[in-house]
Amino acid sequence: MTKTSLGLDENIEGVLCYLAGFLSGIVFFVLEKDSEFVKFHAMQSIIFSVAIFVITTVLAFIPIIGWLLDILITFGSLALWLYLMYKAYKGLKQFLSFCSIP
User: Fold this and answer.
1) pTM exceeding 0.70
2) What sign for the dihedral angle of Cα 58, 64, 65, 67?
3) How far apart are CA 59 and CA 67, in angstroms?
4) Within 10 A of 17 (CB to CB), how many other CB atoms are there?
5) What letter would DSSP give residue 43?
């Protein structure tokens, strides 16, 4: 991996984009000037975090079934979050639909 305009390796910055959800995604999207790889993962982190927040917020208002789905989605999103961080560390652009771009 190459160094970015912030001085870190691209794959490390890609992982850091996911660390604090949409907040770290916004920070790296704004600060990174050169790396398309980092910008990709920053934008994906923002979209993923906001989508999970909206879905779990809506489900929280639905009694019983919504609460159960909320728990399942929370665990599923944690697994997907770790998977996306792993793929960023490996140096792949990974869409949420699980198709890789080298």
Assistant:
1) yes
2) positive
3) 6
4) 30
5) H
